[in-house]
Amino acid sequence: MVVLLYAATIGLSAALLFTLQPMFAKLTLPLLGGAPSVWNTAMVFYQAMLLAGYAYAFALCRLPSRRVQVGVHAALALSTLVFLPPVVSPWLGSPDPSAPVAWLIGTMAVSIGALCLLMSATAPLVQHWYAGLERPGSDNPYVLYAASNLGSFGALAAYPLLVEPMLGASAQVAWWSAVFVGFLAALLGAGVLYASRQPHPAHSSRPVADATSPAAPIPWLTKLRWTALAAVPSGLLLAVTGHIAADIASAPLLWVVPLALYLLTFVFAFADQRARLLPWASLGAGVCALVLLAPLRGSGIEWTWALSLHLLGFFIIASALHGRLAAARPPAARLTEFYLWLALGGVIGGAITALLAPVVFDDVHEYPLLLVLALALLVRTPARRVGARIGAGVAGLALLAVGSVQLLFPDLLSATGGIGGRPAVIAGAVLAGLALAGRPIILACIGAGLAALVFALGRPDQPIAQERSFFGVLRVTDDAQGLRRLDHGTTIHGIQSTRPGEERLPMAYYGPATPIARAIRAVQDSTPGARVGIVGLGTGASACWARPGERWTFFEIDPAVRDLAFDPAVFSFHALCTPTAPVVMGDARLTLQQKPENAFDVLLIDAFSSDMVPTHLMTQEAMRIYLSRISERGIVILHVSNRMMALEGVAGDVIGAIGAHALVREFTATSARDRSGYNFGTDAVVVARSAQALALFDTERCVFDEQRDCWRPVRALGQRPWSDDHSNVLGAIIAKRQGMN
User: Fold this and answer.
1) Chain CA centroid to CA 116, Å
2) Which of these ranges, 227-241, 247-261, 303-317, has the smallest mean pLDDT?
3) Does the pTM exceed 0.85?
């Protein structure tokens, strides 16, 4: 029962902490545009609080009196009750788009900092208490660390699959607070047991595993090794999350997956069989790191397979590094000090990736750099079957060389037909990883060469401008057809033609044939001098639908998008068509509420973060704000094109719940010219206060559901309507996979 009490206390603290992470991030997302960097910045805050908690536990365990230790911690535990329930504190006001990181970290500190400090300190402190009981098995308190990470993993897995779909935000906060009170009771019980219980008689001859017991000092080189072995996986956690969001797919559910895998690696690393698994993990890590460093872009790998490859590779690499960290752990007397250096490494890796890298790099270059560092830190193992390894190594290096030459100089081997540059490099990376397992420095050198190869190859279309902000990576590229496009992560955010005479032509999602353009023109034709609001600036293509005498206003949250759209040398839509139109910076919901009612005749909502529409812009509360800002005969246009979620159905559920009226139109680009950029396939929903306002849109052609390029009634999913309290992202993703709108 004693073991269960201590394991339950640690498990509850971990589960609560890692439920608080996505729950509080969800509460702050509406204020920061739903950007993936909200998650990465929040992760750095949690890592910093983990370090603070471990430092506090380390200092507390220096106290010679058990009763004083427990008394101090009990006072901290009870003081956290004033921070219940955990909600976003209004002390720092609304976020500044030019400094979102400082606002987010500051708001998290004043809102949940004390709660995080208490829960972060629990794992090392309770393990220290358990070691001091001198019961059977208490000489290995590290086993409880595996239980801690298992609780964290369970919480992260349960949140998107069970908690978020079933409970609204207010219910989540209430349940979390109730469980937290139960955790406090278990924590105080464990502390009282530690302070009052005498060592077990059968083990009284064994020295107490106490932080004050004499133990050999730990060399600084060992401490630095601990820090590095913790820093690289921590940095990789955020780097692979950023890479997935920028190059593969962006969805809040996917942000949780790398963290869950990261925690699972600790469970495996601190299990009793870690010594047997470590060589195999190092072998797999070497192969995975080299493959991930190979030029995979352009290899034709489908996005779900690419996503799986990066997640699997990250899991194996982190398992190997954490396995080496667990193998180097000190005796129980140095437990809290070990965790302190582990937490310091986590903060260093996270801060470099989430805070420094976006300032230094204009793309996610930290990912390959961390993979190279991971290779250098793998465990060194003795060579076996030397002949086979030499043969595989020679073959691998030969394939790497030939494939690299063919990629860099594609015409050089064309006379012989070649062997395929990318397949050769990937096959060579696999063979080299297998042959050189246990030779980390050599593997790191090969990895650095692969990273240099990818950098030299660049992307198929070299950017003419590239910016990286809190909200993601923005790339501007030209193609051979004279089209210039803006990419945000995996999504095209706009296109402009550089051909003479076509500079003013709206393109992509705003092309003349798209439902967005048709809806805007319909209102313009019936309302001279229309007032138009555009949420989501993009390239500014919509500006060239403006007519003389109209008043246009743009809303944008990302300063980098504004700078690119307003630079005539990059995109000239605004300079040519709406040079005097104001741009309101900040989150659209907050800035729209500052506008008077009936301020617009058309309000377009087209705010994407890569391929994700921020959920707070698709809720009942948001829709009521939009409808209150349009005129009696005005319309709201929702751009609902999406590869991952059934947004038409989400909108249908919301519109039905608030009693509004809506139509939808789906345009499919059939010609090569349209698909190249002139008219993208686009889905748009028009919403109005009354059915009369929708009389502008002809629905007679939509006799049959198969006729898609026409205005028809919106189809709802039949799910619980999204609100600020509840949004079921998983349900919308499943509905899309099932073929629903």
Assistant:
1) 20
2) 247-261
3) no
Alpha-carbon span 404 to 299, nearest angstrom: 14
Average pLDDT in the 212-233 region? 83
State yes or no: pLDDT of 227 exceeds 60. yes
Task: Say if CB 28 and CB 104 are below 8 A apart.
Answer: yes
Architecture of the domain made up of 1-208 = Up-down Bundle (1.20)
Tell me which CATH code domain 509-737 carries: 3.40.50.150
Helix (H, G, I), strand (E, B) or coil at 584: strand
Supply the pLDDT for residue 276: 57
Give, in order, the Cα–Cα distances in Å from 696 to each of 76, 509, 516, 603.
Answer: 63, 21, 14, 16
533 has which bridge partners? 553, 603
Coil vs helix vs strand at 344 = helix
For 644, list phi and psi in degrees, rounded to 5.
-115, -30
Structure-model confidence comparison of residues 378 and 543, the more confident one: 543
Collapsing DSSP states into helix, strand and coil, what is residue 205?
A: coil
Buried b (16+ CB within 10 A) or exposed e, 49-63: bbbbbbbbbbebbee
| Of the candidates 257, 235, 439, the residue with the CA atom closest to the CA atom of residue 318 | 235
The per-residue pLDDT for 543 is 95
> Which neighbouring-strand residues pair with 712?
664
Which stretch of 31-40, 135-144, 354-363 has the lowest confidence by average pLDDT? 31-40
The burial class, CB within 10 Å (0-12 / 13-18 / 19+), for 180 is buried
Task: Mark out the alpha helices in 29-99 (DSSP H runs).
Answer: 36-60, 66-79
User: Do 402 and 424 touch, CB atoms closer than 8 A?
Assistant: yes
DSSP secondary structure string for all residues of 385-425 = SHHHHHHHHHHHHHHHHHHHHHHHSTTTTGGGT---HHHHH
**Measured in whole angstroms, how far is the alpha carbon of residue 242 from the centre of its chain?**
6
When the pLDDT of each residue in the chain is averaged and rounded to a whole number, the result is: 84
- DSSP per residue, 112-128: HHHHHHHHHHHHHHHHH
Domain spans of the chain, in order of start: 1-208, 218-382, 394-457, 509-737
> What integer pLDDT is reported at residue 111 of this predicted model?
95
Output the pLDDT for position 46.
87
Report d(CA 20, CA 43) in Å as an integer: 11
Cβ pair 61, 338 in contact under 8 A: no
Task: Please indicate whether the domains covering 1-208 and 509-737 agree at the CATH topology level.
Answer: no
Dmax (CA) for the chain in angstroms is: 93
By DSSP bridging, strand 600-605 and strand 531-535 are parallel
If one compares 698 and 640, the residue with the highest pLDDT of the two is 640
Average pLDDT of 46-68? 90
Half-sphere exposure of 670 (CA within 13 A, CB side): 5
